[in-house]
Each structure stands twice: as C-alpha cells, then as structure tokens.
TrEMBL record:
The keyword Transferase does not apply. Its EC number is 4.1.1.35. Pfam families: GDP_Man_Dehyd (PF16363). This is UDP-glucuronate decarboxylase. Keywords: Decarboxylase, Lyase, NAD. Residues 1-205 form the NAD(P)-binding domain. Its cofactor is NAD(+). Belongs to the NAD(P)-dependent epimerase/dehydratase family. UDP-glucuronic acid decarboxylase subfamily. It is an enzyme of class 4 (lyase). Pathway: Nucleotide-sugar biosynthesis; UDP-alpha-D-xylose biosynthesis; UDP-alpha-D-xylose from UDP-alpha-D-glucuronate: step 1/1.
Length: 225
C-alpha cells in the first residue's frame, strides 16, 4: 500500500520514483548466482511469503505505473547490507552475531550454518542507489557484494573481530530459509559503473565499534537505574 501511495504521488508531481526491492524476490533460488533475469523460486503461502510476495508485488506495481502512466522509476534489488547505526536487536544475522559477541553470549546459528549470504557495507549500497537514481536505466539492478559466506564463516569473522573465545549455539532452522544467496552484479557494473569496494573484513570493524559504544552505554544506563 505504501508503494502504491508513493507511486500515485510520483505520478501527480512528476517525480522520479525509487523502489528499494530485495534479493528475497528470488526466494530460495535454483539459479546461482542470481541474475536480474531470474524470476525466482518463492513459496506464495510460506511464513516468509508476506515479505517476498509483498516486494514482488511492489515491483509489479512500479513497472505498471512506468508503462501505464509513464512514471519515471528505478528498481534496486538490495542484498544483505550491514553497517553502523543499525538497530541492535533487529534480528538480522550480522546484527545478531555482533551484539551477541559483544554481550559475551553464544552466537545463534540456525540449521547447519551452511546456508550462504552476501554482505555489503552500507556506503557501497548508498553509492549504488545514487548511481541508479542519477542514471537513465530503470532496472531492476542487483545491489550487493558478491563475496559469499556461509553463516559459520560469518560467525568466524565476527569472532576474529570481537572475541575469539565466543561459542556457537545451533538452533532449528526457520521455514523456507534460502540455501544460497549471491548477486550477479555484472549489469550494475556495466550500466551504472558501480561495484562494492568494502570487504566484510574491512566493513565489520566499523559496525562493531558503533555497536560496542551503544551496547556499553545501554549497560551503563541499566546500572544507573
């Protein structure tokens, strides 16, 4: 509904509209890495489908307004992104691991930890979105870092960065959790002249120092009450 309202506004005032879509439109992909031409493998009635299908519908609406009402649109499919100032307890895997390691809690891994994700630093994403909005191509464009990590590998990088003695706790996997996730960004490289510059090992410490400051302040605040 939010996308529909904003498309109506863009049509009325003649604005260029940016849809920040998601790699989740690919569902649990049978193609690896994922190109923008891939239509995806999504369970329409699964526990994740409200998000997956919501974003797929948002892309449909955006293209309908572009074709039917000549609204200028741009579509970005964003892959996992991390960085400072994220919500500490937002439930995303990088936030979870970093917060747990700082609080000296076990890192929670769901399933066997062999499922993969690709993690881009927030400033790379911002550069990609600016290039998309300033360019002449509608998209969709995959905006993500092709560096692919299993959850266990991510946990090891977090341990190296924060606390090498941190332990890992395995829990049952969630339903319809994608097994693999890696963007093919050749289209963005060619048409937007964009690719990510910051590796996970470079970007993670920047996020960690921000989380450490906030968690420390949070703990001090609790001690004063």
């Amino acid at each position: 509904m939010g996308t529909l309202n904003m498309l109506g506004l863009a049509k009325r005032i003649g604005a260029r509209f940016l849809l920040t879509s998601t790699s989740e439109v690919y569902g649990d992909p049978l193609e690896h890495p994922q190109k923008e031409t891939y239509w995806g493998n999504v369970n329409p009635i699964g526990v994740r489908s409200c998000y997956d299908e919501g974003k797929r519908t948002a892309e449909t609406l955006t293209m309908d307004y572009h074709r039917g009402a000549e609204v200028e649109v741009r579509i970005a499919r964003i892959f996992n992104t991390y960085g400072p100032r994220m919500c500490i307890d937002d439930g995303r895997v990088v936030s979870n691991f970093v917060a747990q390691a700082i609080r000296r809690q076990p890192l929670t891994v769901y399933g066997d930890g062999k499922q993969t994700r690709s993690f881009q630093y927030v400033s790379d994403l911002v550069d990609g979105l600016v290039a998309l909005m300033e360019g002449e191509h509608v998209g969709p464009f995959n905006l993500g870092n092709p560096g692919e990590f299993t959850m266990l590998e991510l946990a090891e990088v977090v341990k190296e960065t924060i606390d090498s003695s941190a332990t890992i706790e395995f829990k049952p996997n969630t339903a319809d959790d994608p097994h693999k996730r890696k963007p093919d960004i050749s289209r963005a490289k060619e048409l937007l002249n964009w690719e990510p510059k910051i590796s996970l090992r470079e970007g993670l410490p920047l996020m960690v120092s921000d989380f450490q400051n906030r968690i420390l302040n949070e703990d001090e605040g609790k001690g004063q009450k």
